[in-house]
Amino acid sequence: MPDTDPRTALVLFSGGQDSTACLAWALARYARVETVGFDYGQRHRIELDCRQTLRAELLSAFPPWAARLGDDHLLDLRLLGQIADTALTRERAIEVEANGLPNTFVPGRNLLFLTHAAALAYRRGASVLVGGMCETDYSGYPDCRDNTLKAMQVALSLGLDSPMVVETPLMWLSKAQTWGLSERLGGRLLTDLIIEHTHTCYLGERGLRHAWGRGCGACPACRLRADGFAAWRAAR
């Protein structure tokens, strides 16, 4: 095991599968970890209700991580929901638009998330931001691209006049590999926790329980999660 990094990390923690994997990744590496979530008027706002359950489950299941997990923060970014006419912030059918992007793309979302997270991190004495952005399964979102995140790291560090590292441990992983990463980090216990308590479904559906977790099973987020789970299980 590598030595524990003495820096404090702030994890962008939505309550979804990817951000939970990132939280586990950070807890395995950094001496202190805090979390931040964003209420931006998302249609699947139920994900915010999952965050505290997940934190409590992690504290209970992994005592060594519990000693490292610090405060949680929830920031109000509902202005983004007011200006973004997308299927994630409005009751609209999910489809691909004329520009080739899915209408679940919320323009500027990750850029705003990182800017606000960096300002919070600066105040909290954290110098590492950890996010679940992924270019392999990024659904066409330009603000999930590696170059976008590298550019943001430079801009944030310059703007704050203080080093701010943006870590994206899932950047080059498929969803199947993300399932595998979680298992390596926390074994079956963490996998089961992710299946039962995380939320990914764009429609906010929590009633249906599938082998891979809860969701409608039909939206792009559910299909990606289900396909990744099937591929991961098949490769074991």
Q: What does this 3D model show about the protein?
A:
This protein is an alpha/beta fold and 236 residues long. 45% of the residues lie in helices and 15% in strands. The chain has eight helices and seven strands, in the order E-H-E-H-H-E-H-H-E-H-E-H-E-E-H. The strands form two sheets. The chain has a five-stranded parallel sheet with strand order 3-2-1-4-5, with helices on both faces. Strands 6-7 form a two-stranded antiparallel ribbon.
Major beta-sheet overview: 5 strands, parallel
Number of helices: 8
How many separate domains make up the residues?
Answer: 1
Rg is: 17 Å
Shape: globular
Poorly predicted sequence stretches spanning 5 or more consecutive residues:
none
What is the level 1 CATH name? Alpha Beta
* Alpha-carbon distance between the two ends: 23 Å
Strand numbers in spatial order across the main sheet: 3-2-1-4-5
Q: How many strands?
A: 7
Q: Supply the CATH architecture.
A: 3-Layer(aba) Sandwich
What is the percent of helical residues?
Answer: 40-55%
Beta-strand content estimate: 15-25%
Give me the strand/helix succession. Answer: EHEHHEHHEHEHEEH
Question: In CATH, what is the homologous superfamily?
Answer: HUPs
User: How would you classify the helix and strand content by structural class?
Assistant: alpha/beta
CATH topology grouping: Rossmann fold
Q: Please, what is the average pLDDT?
A: 88
Summarize, please.
The protein has 236 residues and is of the alpha/beta class. It has helices at 17-27, 46-61, 63-66, 78-83, 109-124, 146-160, 175-197, 220-235, and strands spanning 5-12, 30-39, 69-76, 128-130, 165-167, 209-210, 213-214. The chain starts with a strand and ends with a helix.
